[in-house]
Amino acid sequence: MKVSVDPLVCEANAVCVGIAPEVFDLTDDDELEILLPEVPAGQADKVRHAVRSCPKAALALEE
After folding, report:
1. Which GO molecular-function terms appear in the entry (predicted)?
2. Per-residue b or e along 43-54, where b marks 16 or more CB atoms closer than 10 Å to that residue's CB
3. Other C-beta atoms lying within 10 Å of the C-beta of residue 32
4. Distance between terminal CA atoms of the chain?
């Protein structure tokens, strides 16, 4: 599974960071950084939840 972000849509609300901090982080410039674009199996449920919870629907999954 791969996760990606549309930087033009993302407002860096950090909801995803709160749900899956092992996969998502914010840079010093308040831009979303995906630490693990290839999602480890053990993080899949958290990442799916983060994608569903994004208030701007800026995250996408490719399974």
Report:
1. 3 iron, 4 sulfur cluster binding; metal ion binding
2. bbebbbebbeeb
3. 21
4. 4
Please report the pLDDT score of residue 45 as a whole number. 97
Domain 2-62 belongs to what topology? Alpha-Beta Plaits (3.30.70)
Helical spans, DSSP H, in the chain: 15-19, 44-53
- pTM for the full predicted model: 0.94
Q: Write the CB contacts of 13 (distance below 8 Å, at least 6 apart in sequence).
A: 54, 55, 56
- The percent of the chain in helix, strand and coil, each rounded to the nearest 5, is 30, 25, 50
48 CB-near residues (< 8 Å, 6+ apart) = 61
